[in-house]
Specification:
dopa decarboxylase, N-terminal domain, 7-stranded mixed β-sheet, 482 residues, alpha/beta, homodimer, Aspartate Aminotransferase, domain 1
Chain lengths: 482, 482
């Protein structure tokens, strides 16, 4: 390079890029053989990395080699077809390439004026999804609503909560406001409430029914009691498909209470929302027309890389009033005219990546029909596994099976269930996770990986079948819930 | 595909990937010729996109063609070498490839146990940066501190604010707490304060000195007055390199006040922090050892794609106490042992991408020496432009030139400056932005693009020289500040 002061050049990009692309292609094609979870202790990976950054440039191939040698052995492979833990975090080839193009463009869509197409493509793709999911027209821009891509459903909950709080603060002080959600609501509810300045006891936990969905009459009573005690109920989080067990809060009844009481209803359909792309599954959203805001994650079940949460509001001014702060250096004619959407006022951060690209790539590459076929494929795999678990006699369901999630336990109780989970996961061919439902240690199996085929679910069943102890004499001790 | 239920296959990935990679390579190589900002009106891009998502799959090449035809003409090209607006948002080839690999892996590092290497590589790279930037050892994990990658400095400010608030709430109610920052502090301070539940008037604006840095004696007086009035001062945001004019708040004096008063000091060095990789520029951090938390953005001046903010805290327990909420389905042995870092408790969202990869790729590809050379190159370009502006007679500086930022105006006043900015930007060969400093409409020129070379700064100067009106009779009306 000699006296050339330039450090960044494009000269190696095509060849390094080809290497990186080949690396990713090999990785994706090898997912079937990989150990789903790593065998490492805390600190193992860090110990294999140098303690100091290099002073001099290193060749790209060395970096890729270290990726193989040091990093990959320490990963839990969320894209492996045997990954049935937590929730599907489905990526896909067009989504990966959408991220590549987005990174290559490296524009910042904080304002419409800072890269107009970044904002407008996002608006259009979010309108497409209103139609694809059969969401109510209140979420369309033309009707005063609108959608935005957030990094996560947690951030969507926080933004909804802050908008609800600001609206309620017109008539009350912060310490008088109360929030409602069930114990099954996502952890982002208590976290968001804490970030937004609410004390722990301002969040009321509404009791659940036997299927772990919100008891609407309990909500009604709690709101009435709070009003009588001088509180101002302001926000309800209802979940369409809870994280633990895929329970559906009754949106119509909860929504009616919210309307009557002037409370903001946020519907968190992070996992289940994608199902609505199939017309026969639209029940996941029944009553959502009563919501003030709504979120679902294409980065869960719609083949789009994390981060991609679609967040919709009925009244976009309520959101932007709560989050807008415009300093001089960001003032511009387009914003001042009121004719554009500035997404910085719809989220916590100022800057934003061009996340709509990957969603656009996915929707176009597969088409709505492809995505429906993808989801139905998972549902049929889930159904087959459900039948096997049900017919076997050693397992019982801890919650009603719903969509792609099965929550089950060994009939002899928690110790056997916990041991079974450990033994199955120790094979490293598959990964399941757990929860606790009504005191029962529960195995969670979520079937939604991009690469999961029938043979992988068959293999999971073979492992469960081989490693589960007999029902023995203990069958009568536990009554199946589901 | 017939009866094959699979929708996602890897069959097209290598060829589509090659097309996408070629597209990005062509884009980067063509940046020199591109119109930096687009000529579009609100709605133009949306109108060119279909109103409905496709039902059937579309070929990848069609999507790339639409990218060229519809999206690119509506972009502001932040990577164009003539982009001098806002702040440098420098990407680079290894960073783009880091994003590609991260997207391909698509792991979720919400907990150590959900992909251990994702957490440990991030910890190691953040330790490297403590050394590279000469940051104090209090920010190292071994000393009870630690670093994390957030999406933005805005989120870092919010997290610091929430941690400070939780610490202060042990001895006071929320409505008694007060926060401090200058009018020049980033907009994320009022925004974060609002999200965190503070009323508008709990944020005190500390006056600035002539160079737009915080007046520490004013801070002292305001804190004393607030204490006397029964308030509990709890948080100060000091900026090392303000957004408007690259002013540096005096950290040593501000820090001493914070120590004495038990206030949390957060240092926002979003833009300027990267400079500390050059030993001769370490003054940007003078006094940072008094900070409770600190953030800088490799996604500004360190060739790493947005989003990448490095956020450090002195006491990581103060942060995780404020942000930790662990539901059953995320409990695991590693977390329970206390021997691992779970980054979910360091940020607003639950999920997280593998963002350390791109930073690792950049640090290794260029080496610390390469990055220093890159920054010094920008500083020499800035200095050359500064000399030209100073020697010309038609311009005056509205703030002391610092690092890669020049804030200047036409000597005849606001109207001429505003017109000059518009005329220069209308050429679409370059893009500058503006601010207002002490009532003066000010052109901001930030020289830090990855692809910006001497000839691009020369071209900018030629445009300014050609389009600026004469100093004429008005020279005496305006006294240069700088």
């Amino acid at each position: 390079m000699g006296d050339d002061p330039r450090v960044v050049t494009s000269s190696g990009f095509r060849s390094d890029g080809a290497s990186a692309l080949e690396w990713v292609a090999d990785y994706l094609e090898g997912l079937d053989q990989v150990a789903v979870s790593p065998s490492v202790a805390p600190g193992d990976i860090a110990a294999r990395l140098p303690a100091h950054a290099p002073e001099e440039p290193e060749p790209f191939d060395t970096i890729l080699a270290d990726l193989d040698r040091i990093v990959v052995p320490g990963l839990t492979h969320w894209q492996a077809p045997g990954f049935f833990a937590y929730f599907p975090a489905s990526s896909s080839p067009p989504s990966v390439l959408g991220e590549l193009v987005s990174a290559g463009l490296a524009v910042n869509g904080m304002l419409w004026s800072t890269s107009p197409a970044c904002t407008e493509l996002e608006m259009v793709v979010l309108e497409w999804l209103v139609e694809l999911l059969g969401l109510p027209d209140q979420f369309r821009f033309a009707n005063g609503g609108g959608g935005v891509i957030e990094d996560s459903a947690s951030s969507a909950t926080l933004c909804a909560l802050v908008a609800a709080r600001e609206r309620a603060l017109r008539g009350a002080t912060l310490d008088r406001l109360t929030l409602y959600g069930t114990s099954e609501a996502h952890s982002s509810l208590p976290k968001g409430a804490k970030i937004a300045g609410f004390a722990h006891d301002q969040l009321r936990r509404v009791p659940v029914l036997d299927d772990f969905s919100m008891d609407p009459s309990a909500l009604s009573r709690m709101v009435a009691d709070d009003r009588a005690a001088g509180f101002v109920p302001c926000f309800v989080l209802a979940t369409s498909g809870t994280t633990s067990s895929m329970a559906f809060d009754p949106l119509e009844q909860v929504g009616a209470i919210c309307r009557e009481e002037g409370m903001w209803l946020h519907v968190d359909a992070a996992m289940a929302g994608s199902a609505a792309i199939c017309p026969e599954l639209r029940a996941v959203h029944q009553g959502v027309e009563l919501a003030d805001s709504y979120a679902f994650n294409p980065h869960k079940w719609l083949l789009t890389n994390f981060d991609c949460t679609c967040f919709y509001v009925r009244d976009r001014n309520a959101l932007t009033d709560a989050l807008s702060v415009t300093p001089e250096y960001l003032r511009n004619a387009a914003t001042a005219s009121g004719s554009v959407v500035d997404y910085r006022d719809w989220q916590v951060p100022l800057g934003r990546r061009f996340r709509a690209l990957k969603l656009w790539f996915v929707l176009r590459t597969y088409g709505a029909e492809g995505l429906r076929r993808h989801l139905r494929h998972h549902l049929s795999l889930t159904e087959k596994l459900r039948e096997r678990l049900e017919a076997d006699g050693r397992f019982s369901f801890c919650a009603p099976p719903a969509l792609d999630l099965l929550c089950f336990a060994h009939v002899t109780g928690n110790a056997a269930t916990e041991r079974l989970l450990r033994d199955v996961n120790d094979t490293r061919r598959v990964l399941l996770s757990h929860t606790v439902l009504a005191g029962r240690y529960t195995i969670r199996c979520a079937v939604g990986g991009a690469w999961t085929e029938e043979r992988h679910v068959d293999e999971l069943w073979e492992l469960l079948d081989r490693l589960a102890p007999p029902a023995a004499t203990a069958v009568a001790q536990v009554a199946p819930v589901g």
